[in-house]
Amino acid sequence: MPRIRVHNKTPSAPRKVAVERTLDPENWESFRTLAHRVLDDAIDYVRDVRHRKPWQPLPDFAKASLSADLPETGQPLEQVYREFRQNVMPYPLGNIHPRHWGWVNGTGTPEGLLSELLVATMNSNVTGHDQAPVWVELQVIDWFKKIFRFPAAAGGLVVSGCSMANLTGLLAARTYVAGSHVRDRGLTGKGAPKFTVYGSSEGHYCIPRALDVMGLGRHAYRAVRTRPDFTVDTEALRLQIAQDRKAGFQPLAIVGNAGTVNTGALDPLAALATIAEREGLWFHVDGAFGAAVCVSERLRSRLKGIARADSIAFDLHKWLYQPYGAGCVLVRNADNLRRAFAFDAPYFRPLEGGTSRAVTKFNDLGVEHSRRFRALSIWFSLKTRGVKTFARLIEQNVSQAEWLGRRLQHSKTLELMAPVALNVVVFRFNPGGLTPDQLNLVNHRLLIEIQNRGIAVPSSTHLNGAFGLRLAVVNHRSRLDDFELMAASAETLGAELLHKMSKPA
Ligand SMILES: *Cc1c(COP(=O)(O)O)cnc(C)c1O
Fold it and tell me: Cα dihedral sign for 440, 457, 200, 428?
């Protein structure tokens, strides 16, 4: 031990200093008054969302105010809140609105609003330690193990979203296959395995990004071609694995899509599980939104084979309707998470009692050390609604997407561009007689028009080079009328745009 020098001046008794600052309010009662108003405003905001436009562009005054310089001194909270009400709150992307179906954006719940308040109230750091939030997260993980029919030995944690969940699952795969020493030496140097990971060309970009982050490089992702229904071609997959082995690569994992982001296509998970078993590869499922259908007895057969995965990544903030940002990763054998992430640090060793009694050290199961209490909102939701309500809502969204698919197939001018496998619908305005370029142009403009007029928020994609308007229905506020309004508007506006475009400028 180094000697610690003792100052020979004895400390004087603590003197009353002029001000000892804190961030707590001087007057809790005026804070309370404002806080009640904020809560009332928040409740009205959610209650009345249907009566507003899903999206409107930020006016210049808001942009100017949001570009102002670093504040040297503070203003009263009331004033900052007024600015927030004026410049921020009216200009969201719109994903809590009943007619927002862009990308895969979740809606949130009223109980989520309360749980977020309680998360900030407790401000827990859910690394580990003997505290109730750890038990809440463990309970939530247990519930999901049951939903996915994972064994008792499985484990997992709540992370920021599915990108992080996918990265976590793939890191577990890496350590499992390469052995624990990979954590010391990395994957550099002579004889280091050249890992490859397999998925479809419709896989989410966060998978190659995860490989990039892991140091394997994006080329380690083998984007296997798909069948006409956008599911992975398992024959092509097998060939690619064989070819890579011959060329000296070491196949590491197969990633199956439980709902591709583009079209909601469901890869044949059981077939992928079998290939993974035969080839001795880790089987990971990216179920960002689609895995949620496992809560429904009626729909879960579409994901046959998901229970055979070594790891599943899914979002809570998409089709489980929770506030951003929360996703979850489950690993069939929790030890594989611990092997991939556990650290021993003298300042973080479990003790026999007190706060540091070991319950589960979540920081041993993932990348993050300090962790937000992300499990609370889903805990609230599952307890207040029951898993059955989630099943009915997810079934409702699937029926709505299927209804819209039929509506589009019966339209004279709108065209369904991909089968509705689950809850994603891709379509375009196609009255006939237009070239591919003209079709892309008119549909590009049509989408912007639908968004700008505040009708609805679909997003876009390209399928085989053709521009399409894309909806992912993960919205518990949407009604059939909302889809009808969007479809009817697309028919009218498409015709109007075409008329304008055909007139010489
Ligand atoms: C959204 C999505 C992701 C990424 O999830 P985040 O929560 O946005 O990080 C990954 N895969 C699929 C299929 C997705 O839809």
Answer: negative
Instruction: Show the DSSP H helices in 76-109 as ranges.
Output: 77-87
In this prediction the pTM is 0.96
Residue ranges around ligand 1 (CB below 6 Å): 104, 161-163, 204, 206, 261, 286, 288-289, 315, 327
Compute, in angstroms, the gap from residue 162 CA to the centroid of ligand 1. 5
At 200, is the secondary structure helix, strand, or coil?
strand
Cα 163 to ligand 1 centroid, rounded to whole Å: 6
**Per-block average pLDDT, block size 10, for the chain (505 residues)?**
74 72 96 98 98 96 96 96 98 97 97 98 94 97 98 98 98 96 89 95 98 97 97 98 98 98 97 98 98 97 98 98 98 98 92 87 95 98 98 98 98 97 97 97 98 97 96 98 98 96 73
* 289 CA closest ligand 1 atom index: 15
Rounded to the nearest angstrom, the distance between the alpha carbon of 194 and the centre of ligand 1 is 26
For ligand 1, atom 9: residue with the closest CA? 163
Question: Quick one: which of 376, 413, 419, 425 has its CA closest to 498?
Answer: 413
Per the listing, tokens 């399409």 go with 468
**Rounded distance, CA 279 to CA 240, Å?**
12
Q: Which atom of ligand 1 is nearest to the CA of 203?
A: 13
Pull the structure tokens for residue 78. 């009331």
Residue 487 · residue 411 · CB < 8 Å = yes
Give the 3-state secondary structure of residue 327: strand
Pocket test for ligand 1, best of 232, 260, 261 (most atoms within 8 A of CB): 261
Give the closest residue (by CA) to ligand 1 atom 2: 288
Taking the CA of residue 164 as reference, the ligand 1 atom at the shortest distance is 9
Query: For residue 199, how far is its CA from the centre of ligand 1 (angstroms)?
Result: 15
User: What are the backbone dihedrals phi and psi of residue 182, each rounded to the nearest 5 degrees, phi first?
Assistant: -60, -25
315 strand-pairing partners: 327
Pairing of strands 282-286, 311-315: parallel
- 159 - beta bridge partners? 327
Distance between CA atoms of 344 and 324, rounded to whole angstroms? 31
Point out the ligand 1 atom lying closest to the alpha carbon of residue 317.
Answer: 7
Centroid of ligand 1 to alpha carbon of 320 (angstroms): 13
Helices and strands, number each (H, E), in the chain: 14, 11
Q: What is the pLDDT of residue 4?
A: 80
